[in-house]
Amino acid sequence: MAFARTSRQSANKYEIEIHINSLNTFYSFLSTQVMNINKEADVLVATYPDAVDHIVAKRRELLRAVEKLDGMVKERNLQLDQNEQLLDYHSNFRELMTWATEFLARMCNPELSRDLHEATTVYSRHSLLHGEMKEREADFTKFEELGQELIDQGHYMSDDIKEKISSLAHR
User: Fold this and answer.
1) What are the tens digits of pLDDT across the range 75-100?
2) At a CB cut-off of 8 Å and minimum separation 6, what does 147 contact?
3) Spatial distance between the Cα atoms of 10 and 4, rounded to a whole number of angstroms
4) Is the distance from CB of 16 to CB of 80 less than 8 angstroms?
5) CA-CA distance, 101 to 127, in Å (whole number)?
């Protein structure tokens, strides 16, 4: 399914990727610093054996903080992945809704034929519309399947996704 992204969405995604890259770089820097602090703690334990309890306690405190930070980073990455999926999903929704609205407008155009030639023209036009509708049917099915997959994965915006599926189905 080839869904077009607006330039604003692309710019937002690009800005988010830059922000993510800078955060990942900072996180790598912090990880390096933690390793260095652990090495220094080993040296301090060897140098000051009477302060072993205090050094070990501070090391545990540091490791707990790093574990908490790891959890926060993983949670943030999961949410960013879900946000990217949702951005793509909303883009697909807008495109399909636009197509459906335009299609309905073309289809509902009242045409009464007065002779055989006009009736043939109307029939041809309706055949073309029917073919176009059949072509897009796969896009609608894929949209619904992707939405259901996001819901099954426990996406935090599941209610919004259900609403999009429902409103498109009723279109």
Assistant:
1) 888 888 888 888 889 989 999 999 99
2) 89, 161, 162, 164, 165
3) 10
4) yes
5) 18
CB contact burial 12-38 (16+ within 10 A = b; e otherwise): eeeeeeeeeeeeeeeeeeeeeebeeee
The Cα–Cα gap between 91 and 18 comes to 21
Report residue 4's pLDDT band, with 50, 70 and 90 as the boundaries: very low
Phi and psi of 152, rounded to 5°? -65, -30
Given a contact cutoff of 8 angstroms between Cβ atoms, the answer to whether 93 and 168 are in contact is yes
**CB neighbours of 31 closer than 8 A, spacing ≥ 6?**
66
- Using N-to-C axis directions, what is the helix angle for 52-107 and 7-47, rounded to 10°? 170
CA–CA separation, 84 and 82 (whole Å): 5
Band of pLDDT at residue 3, cut at 50, 70 and 90: very low
Cβ pair 156, 171 in contact under 8 A: no
Whether residue 6 is predicted with pLDDT greater than 60 in this model: the reply is: no
Question: What does the block give as tokens for 162?
Answer: 């259900």
Distance CA 89, CA 1 (A): 12
Contacts of 68 (CB under 8 A, 6+ apart): none
Kindly indicate the confidence band of residue 52, based on its pLDDT and cuts at 50, 70 and 90: very high
